[in-house]
């Protein structure tokens, strides 16, 4: 029996899992998909928000500002790329400037440091491609960018290196109350038992709470659609540009990603069906908005589009508490934006303030929070590349030409915790297939490496998701 089972391998479940491995606890994470980071933590803006947006005294405000302060050190310990690029909220009218003043005051109340309102001339100096119609901006130098799935994969990988167990393809379907915890049963009939359960199931966290007898969570979905531009346009902006927010939310943004692409979006549409699919209408809305924010956006460099679904609660704030109804259940639900930013702070709070009151926390002296960063071969100097190839010749073979990813990096992704089992899982760990050709050249080679390393038939390798094989069988 596990001491604690975390349900949901997103950034919230992942950072909580890692935090728990700092103590002498036997912990696991149950994830319904074939890889971790498959919900909101896969498809979001990747912004480490400064913290001026959330209502003062809300959990969102508290954890956003704390998480923002923690993120640089957290990412560096795990070898995850993080860039403190700063953000700008653009104003296009006198009314917008009034809203920016309110945001600045709100941010200062929340504890955000160094906020300032800048004029057109300063804005032009910082971001020459901003539309001539912008009259000023709120500048937040503490804003940053990070890759959400890199952070999640690294957190769960590090937790596993410290003893945590990961069960993929484990969709929690029912639970049986035991004397000292729960037996948790998957749709396939697999069973795991744990004394404490932490519900981090994102859009499904309401349903998961109900499985344990707590019907109080009302979690809904709001879809966001994006367009991604090739790295060739990566210097179009360097800060994250937001519109002045309205009642509908933070609006469309234009930002560099930490991997050097440009990201445009997201829309905000209420959805009954949480399927993260893009629509012509949604993408056209993004294009129109971006054209009004920036001069000549390089839309011709679009390489893909995608969507994510925010899981929000009708309470208007994060829910982070021990269930008042189901014994030994902790709900960490309704974690919409700024949930990515808040994740390290939420994880610490859950362990130190909630779990600590339910079981005794004894430090795990063997905990090692460090994770070797990915080599990202293309970023090494020629001497470093030569040295690496001398040690391991698989680093001398480029598999993904667009992103310059070597066989060595793919082998590592397939072998290292949490092991990549599918082509998309390799892509999220290495960026093989994320470039201009979107995997057209490298996918068959990635599939070959997965088949060889996991000792499965080539035609059985999945792209990602159930029944997603690329091949139907052998012709010769
Ligand atoms: C469009 C969009 C833009 C955003 N932008 C930002 C941003 O820029 N900055 C920021 O700070 N935040 C942002 N967010 C918010 C951020 O993405 C979320 O707060 C964060 O990812 C929440 O993580 P999570 O682990 O709670 O949920 P998820 O990542 O959704 O993880 C839940 C996991 O639970 C699994 N699961 C579900 N049901 C079951 C079950 N029955 N059994 C087992 N497993 C199950 C799912 O497969 C999933 O992997 C954005 C979100 C969206 C959608």
Descriptive labels:
476 residues; alpha+beta; D-Amino Acid Oxidase, Chain A, domain 2; 8-stranded mixed sheet; 22 strands; binds flavin-adenine dinucleotide
DSSP strand content = 15-25%
Number of helices in the DSSP assignment: 12
Low-confidence stretches: none
Architecture per CATH nomenclature, i.e. the level-2 architecture of one domain = 2-Layer Sandwich
Anisotropy-based shape: globular
Note the main sheet: 9 strands, mixed
For CATH, the homologous superfamily of one domain is named as D-Amino Acid Oxidase, subunit A, domain 2
Bound molecules: flavin-adenine dinucleotide
First-to-last CA distance = 49 Å
**What does the average pLDDT come to?**
96
Q: According to CATH, what is the class of one domain?
A: Alpha Beta
Helix content, binned percent? 25-40%
- The assigned structural class equals alpha+beta
Strand element count: 22
CATH topology of one domain: D-Amino Acid Oxidase, Chain A, domain 2
Radius of gyration, in Å, reads: 22 Å
Describe what you observe in this structure.
The protein has 476 residues and is α+β, with helices and mostly antiparallel strands. Among the domains are: 83-145 and 221-309, D-Amino Acid Oxidase, subunit A, domain 2 (D-Amino Acid Oxidase, Chain A, domain 2, 2-Layer Sandwich); 377-460, Arc Repressor Mutant, subunit A, CATH 1.10.10. The protein is built from twelve helices and 22 strands. It has helices spanning 11-20, 59-78, 94-110, 120-126, 148-161, 205-211, 280-293, 339-354, 382-391, 407-415, 423-430, 443-454, and strands at 2-7, 27-30, 47-48, 82-83, 87-91, 116-119, 136-140, 144-146, 165-167, 172-178, 181-186, 191-199, 219-229, 240-243, 253-256, 262-265, 269-271, 302-313, 319-322, 329-333, 398-400, 405-406. The strands form four sheets. Strands 5, 6, 7, 13, 14, 15, 16, 17 and 18 form a nine-stranded mixed beta sheet that branches. Strands 1, 2, 9, 10, 11, 12, 19 and 20 form an eight-stranded mixed beta sheet that branches. It has a three-stranded antiparallel beta sheet with strand order 3-8-4. α1 packs parallel to α8 (339-354), α2 packs across α8 (339-354) and α10 (407-415) crosses α11. The mean pLDDT is 96. It binds flavin-adenine dinucleotide. Flavin-adenine dinucleotide is lined by residues 7-13, 30-33, 38-41, 44-47, 49, 170-172, 200-204, 208, 224, 266, 308-311, 335-341.
């Amino acid at each position: 029996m596990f001491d604690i089972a975390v349900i949901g391998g997103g950034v919230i479940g992942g950072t909580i899992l890692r935090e728990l491995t700092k103590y002498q606890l036997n912990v696991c994470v149950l994830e319904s998909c074939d890889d971790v980071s498959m919900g909101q933590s896969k498809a979001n803006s990747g912004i480490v928000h400064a913290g001026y947006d959330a209502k003062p005294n809300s959990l969102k405000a508290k954890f956003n500002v704390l998480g923002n302060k923690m993120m640089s050190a957290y990412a560096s310990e795990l070898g995850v790329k993080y860039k403190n690029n700063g953000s700008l909220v653009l104003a296009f009218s006198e009314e917008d400037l009034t809203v920016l003043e309110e945001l600045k005051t709100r941010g200062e109340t929340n504890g955000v440091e160094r906020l300032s309102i800048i004029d057109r001339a300063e804005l032009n100096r910082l971001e020459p491609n901003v539309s001539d119609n912008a009259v000023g901006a709120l500048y937040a130098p503490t804003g940053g960018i990070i890759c959400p799935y890199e952070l999640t994969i690294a957190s769960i990988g590090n937790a596993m290196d410290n003893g945590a167990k990961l069960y993929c393809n484990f969709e929690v379907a029912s639970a049986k109350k035991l004397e000292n915890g729960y037996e948790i049963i998957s749709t396939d009939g697999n069973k795991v038992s744990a004394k404490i359960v932490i519900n981090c199931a994102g859009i499904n966290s309401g349903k998961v709470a109900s499985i344990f007898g707590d019907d109080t969570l009302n979690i809904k979905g709001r879809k966001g659609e994006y367009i991604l531009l090739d790295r060739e346009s990566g210097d179009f902006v360097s800060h994250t540009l937001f519109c002045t927010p309205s009642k509908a939310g933070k609006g469309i943004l234009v930002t560099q990603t930490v991997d050097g692409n440009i990201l445009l979006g997201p829309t905000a549409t209420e959805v009954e069906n949480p399927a993260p699919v893009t629509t012509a209408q949604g993408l056209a809305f993004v294009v129109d908005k971006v054209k009004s924010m920036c001069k000549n956006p390089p839309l011709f460099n679009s390489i893909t589009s995608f969507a994510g679904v925010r899981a929000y609660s009708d309470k208007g704030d994060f829910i982070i508490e021990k269930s008042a109804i189901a014994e030994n259940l902790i709900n960490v639900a309704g974690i919409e934006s700024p949930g990515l930013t808040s994740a390290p702070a939420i994880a610490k709070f859950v362990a130190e303030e909630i779990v600590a009151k339910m079981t005794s926390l004894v430090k795990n002296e063997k905990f090692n929070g460090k994770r070797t960063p990915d080599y990202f071969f293309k970023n090494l100097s020629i001497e470093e590349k030569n040295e690496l190839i001398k040690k391991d010749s698989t680093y001398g073979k480029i598999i993904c030409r667009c992103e310059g990813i070597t066989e060595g990096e793919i082998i590592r992704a397939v072998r290292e915790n949490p092991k990549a089992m599918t082509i998309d899982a390799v892509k999220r760990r290495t960026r093989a297939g994320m470039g201009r050709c979107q995997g057209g050249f490298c996918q068959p080679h990635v599939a070959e490496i997965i088949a060889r390393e996991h000792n499965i038939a080539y035609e059985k390798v999945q792209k990602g998701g159930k029944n997603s094989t690329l091949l139907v069988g052998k012709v010769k």
